[in-house]
């Protein structure tokens, strides 16, 4: 019932179609948390690109663990309109019906000579159709006045007048506007009565879908007798409510399992993933797949066939013997539900209530198959979820992500970009080149020699081959992407000629300022005046890199997060002299690449890494206070982070973490980087304990197994100066408070524009517990005054590094929240 797509996560199978043992393992590792942030490749495999430009930053999160709530937002961001679909001055203008346009949300109903009524969704004020309270009221009027008592209507086709979009989901703003969420029960009951009234007319209902049919859009289609969709690449069907902490509320938890089977339905509802046309046909979600140009004609012909009996109404596909056992017998269901509950608990750690509510709704429906009790239970569960802080937090993330799709520099500020040159073909550079080529840009990929460029090209080719294998990309698209990328080396003079046509340069080489300055000088000599130079530095101030440049106004920071194809965040960092056109251009290119862009101030570490600095220092402080590695990881996992800090350091590289911590310790954070001892990691680097990539870090790695060996235990025992026997809550509060306080300090110092940017940055950039909504919403939930008291207590006990920043104190004193 919501309008959020999701996530491009890996395909999940709930139960095997071939082997009953899969029923015990099927609800694989991607439920809600697996959908909000991440994707396909693992960092450890990508660290095998051994060349000079293969730089990794502290924000190179291990993707297989960083599955979480944000990249349900990564590919989803492409299906969300550039501006939020909610009330606006244009929406508030009263609609005046005319004979040519009777309805605001629908075109006039057309009835063919054969009695087929064509109802076309068409919100005149928005780029997409969404199910709002106003649309629902108008739909009832339309149905009652033009269809229900009209004996000439023999069948009804529901379709959209808008190209490439059916219904993108329900309007979130309607739900947010309700102070009393219990009113949703009555509202949803009215919608259910409307759908049931449609059925009582006794004529065939056909949904003709081109483009997204998500949330409430798909639920509308599920009430129809027949569903036809197009093979348009933009066509996708799904129930993504779980990503907003909700559940399908227009009968979806009951109608979907009845149509596609319990296992397929649970897969869709618990992950919120999209179903593409070919799979939708195979699983019985739709009855026909046609070309977009043929959709309406085929729908009308099908409607006539359903009336005269030459076509048959949709029926659930016949189940295999195995699936009949799993879904239709008591022993099979018992085993299935047990495993589903176990895997949801494992993947959400009990922090997300909506998956459990979805399970309860489906089980309730199976126990009460007749009557409306199952729908009553569904809407009651929906209303309960709408009141939860988890749903508020997840909707806040969605709101923030949508808001980040627009910049403040004006529609015409950005320069046209056709050709992008990427310098450095390592992990970062190749990833940047990949997401750039995928969006239609011509790409130049340059490194020192053929070997380095070849590794970068192979990285992209391998990733695209995986997408083809997983049916997430057509073979011709893969070939098209490769054809857009030209590899160049330092040895070839031709690179200068190629670069003379570049509109944007993105540099992704070592974190060494003199190297970056030298590259700026070289590039300025061969590129046109309008060309923008973006550096992918993770911490070095942009103004320092621009020092001595001939066109400093064209220099900007574009800080990607590794691995680039999977991580959704992009920090854009203009220095004081950067022209607005450069910032706007970087923003629009990043958005087109599928990134959520935040503009942050040019300071050491920018925003995300700056917040991670004190957090990392506190990890060493806790180790000095006798907290074990396992306890550190467990505490933060239980808080809701995708990985613990120790595992994070090993995955990213202890050397990388040590470098960032050292850099920030010598920057401008002052006492906020004190309290710990970063020699913990410096000494490990000297010992060659670099983390997973070297086989030994905090943990020892043997294949997929990780253990703590005797050398590390002895090292940590010697490092610890005392054992305070700290409880998990204090461990969590000590680490998180350093993180959160720095985020607020960044707001105080205008490094970020507002709390929304702050929340989005840390959720999308570090995996900050999505169900908590980010550091600022977390403070609002806990209570700013209460959190200040916690930090003041720590300051007295452990030192001034815990003293709340002034803005945090101000909010505590005034009782003001960060979010309205």
From TrEMBL:
This is enoyl-CoA hydratase. Residues 73-89 have a biased composition (Basic and acidic residues). Pathway: Lipid metabolism; fatty acid beta-oxidation. Pfam families: 3HCDH, 3HCDH_N, ECH_1. Residues 605-701, 732-816 form the 3-hydroxyacyl-CoA dehydrogenase C-terminal domain. GO terms for biological process: fatty acid beta-oxidation. Gene3D superfamilies: 1.10.1040.50, 2-enoyl-CoA Hydratase, Chain A, domain 1 (3.90.226.10), NAD(P)-binding Rossmann-like Domain (3.40.50.720). PROSITE patterns: 3HCDH (PS00067), ENOYL_COA_HYDRATASE (PS00166). Its EC number is 4.2.1.17.
